[in-house]
């Protein structure tokens, strides 16, 4: 096995999703923090690895992969002892893929990034109510996904759970989850938090981003 290096920042939900996957697979790897404030992601060296200049980026024996969903699928497919985290059976895989696309397009981009980018880049602390409402709708969808499942894509943890927990535990900085309305989602979060590697891989970074959000003294506007 070649040397595995993950480049990222633990404030990033996609990076934390990959950290969860590494820990679940018990894979040895080197973690190299990228300082976005110092624009290290725009350096010539980083752009050669990832011209999209996003985090995370995975280096595997001189090969480079970016996008957390692609990275996790690759790690499980190449290094997993079995396919439990990313099933090979087509129908089961399709459900996992759907959840991954939901996290990427609806949760991360539509829910989190659309608020975080103006907040961090322009210090835009006034958040439209519709964006907060959209987060509530995301929670409702997740509750529905869990209607007949213990985890997001079935009865076992998959990489879909890693993606969704990393973003969910960031979104709560803007809108808390109402346990009375989303009991299954609340229980699922507790199950994920009970994983032996959860706190190191996701808990610490999630607490940092929620703390950052709370420090901004946000105002919800119509």
TrEMBL record:
Residue stretches making up the GST C-terminal domain: 89-217
Membrane-spanning residues: none
PROSITE patterns hit by this protein: GST_CTER (PS50405), GST_NTER (PS50404)
InterPro entries reported for this sequence: Glutathione-S-Trfase_C-like, Glutathione-S-Trfase_C_sf, Glutathione_S-Trfase, Glutathione_S-Trfase_N, GST_C, Thioredoxin-like_sf
Record-level Gene Ontology MF annotations: glutathione transferase activity
Domain GST N-terminal: 2-83
GO biological process: glutathione metabolic process
Subunit structure: Homodimer.
Function recorded in the entry: Conjugation of reduced glutathione to a wide number of exogenous and endogenous hydrophobic electrophiles.
PANTHER family: FI01423P-RELATED (PTHR43969:SF4), GLUTATHIONE S TRANSFERASE D10, ISOFORM A-RELATED (PTHR43969)
Protein's name according to its UniProt entry: Glutathione S-transferase 1-like
Organism: Stomoxys calcitrans (Stable fly)
